[in-house]
Amino acid sequence: MLKLFDHEHLDLDNLSDDLTAIRVEDLSLQFGNKHVLENISMRIPKHRVTALIGQSGCGKSTLISSFNRMNDLNPQCRYQGQIYIGDRDINNKKQNVSELRTQVGMVFQRPNPFPMSIYENVCYGLKLQGIKVRRQLDDAVERALKDAALWKEVKDRLFESASVLSGGQQQRLVIARALALKPDILLLDEPTSALDPLTTLFIEELIAELKHRCTIIIVTHNMQQAARVSDYTAFLHQGRLIEYSDSDTLFTTPEQKQTEDYITGRYG
Amino acid sequence: MRQIAFNTHISGKFNTELEDLRNSVLTMGGEVEQQLIDTLKAIRLNHSGLAEKVALNDLRINSMEIQIDKECMRIIAKRHPTASDLRLVMIISKAITDIERMGDEIERMARLVTKQKIPNSESVKSSMLSIGEKVVAMMRGTFDAFARQDDNSALEVYDQDNRIDSEYKRLLAYIVKEMESSNESMQDWLEILWALRSLERVGDRCKNICEYVVTLTRGEDIRHTPLENLSQTLENLE
Predict the structure, then answer these.
(1) CA angle, corner A83, sides to A79 and A85, nearest 5?
(2) ipTM score of the complex?
(3) Which single residue of A97, A115, B133, B180 has CA 20 to 30 Å from B62?
(4) Using CA atoms, how far apart are residues A86 and A108, in angstroms rounded to an integer?
(5) Is residue B6 part of a domain?
(6) Tell me, what's the pLDDT at B237?
(7) Residue B79 belongs to domain spanning
(8) Is pLDDT at A268 greater than 60 in this prediction?
(9) What are the chain A neighbours of B12 within 8 Å (beta carbons)?
(10) Residue B77: predicted pLDDT
């Protein structure tokens, strides 16, 4: 029979290692006595956009923060289980966390440019890595700003303060700052919740472009956004992974009643 | 003519999805049009092999309907289309039902050949083929109007259906006379009448799709509007 549409639906339960960006195995996490994540196992595919959805407090931000060990900043954090990037368990105490955060970039809800010029913002991480050659920095800044679809708007004012940029531009600047380090994985925690609807669509389009360069994981409260931007979606409830599948299936014919109730607004 | 640009969304992927969806309807329409051309040829040449092929090919058309419907549902769930985008998805979902039914009607006509029930009367056969050619032209006009979002052409095609209906009624009256003097069994004549009815229904389905084109371009639902009120309704929209 003639196939009219071609939508990729990877088998996430049997994803091969070469297609896997992150492999989570039996991850449980608690802050003090509060269990936030319980026995999460999943494979996140490379060069795809994966969305984490669920109501507030379900553990989605904690899960995404586990992928670059941001939870370590909370002294009460305890975790069990493994998170593999390649064949390396990043939960291993010997893991170099700075190196990990270079490989796994993160963008937060509110744009947080540093109080310095646009240029300095983008090359901040590179300078920390010890790169000082001006030509190298110039090239990296241009490339990152182009990748973040911001170059045309700022190329003539690179040395102006980043604070003069609009909210949407600041968020793209922060994305450029992360991209300058050429991350394999980019974590986006509610990246558009502080932006207007049109700017949000531009950022979403940027996300669709960026997945060709790196794996993207996005946390969003906005289910419509998850449906629009993601290739795969994981629904979490009370720290458990309830359903994880391609977004086409999850948003049209979810398997679990809890998922159906959540995405149809019947959640009580 | 009111053209809606479906390729100007911020999301390039959404543009592609809508374009693919529109193209899929034209692919399905093209298949059904070819089915009718083949059926008419099979009737003309009494070619049962070709008619068999038409009957088998209907499965392809059924599969296309399911795929396109699923894609419409996927786009609604994932893209939350609004305004002209929503109208496009909704009318496509309806149009493919009409196209699939056209396929069924054509398959019924093709069975006339496989069952060896082609009319013996040359004048009945040639009138049937003549209506068939007009329906093919109407289908072509319908899918062109859909592709170009040309509501004026859609309304012209809409009008062609009335001429096909008149020709169909004349042929029916002629057949009734023929039946009285013919040696063919009543069962054979009924098969021919059903096939003719199917042909006429294909024209009606084209008319439905033309109505959807107007809904898409003008945002007005002209179904069930009497023909005499139609031009006034459309003028009010100008």
Answers:
(1) 150
(2) 0.86
(3) B133
(4) 25
(5) no
(6) 67
(7) 12-235
(8) no
(9) 205, 208
(10) 96
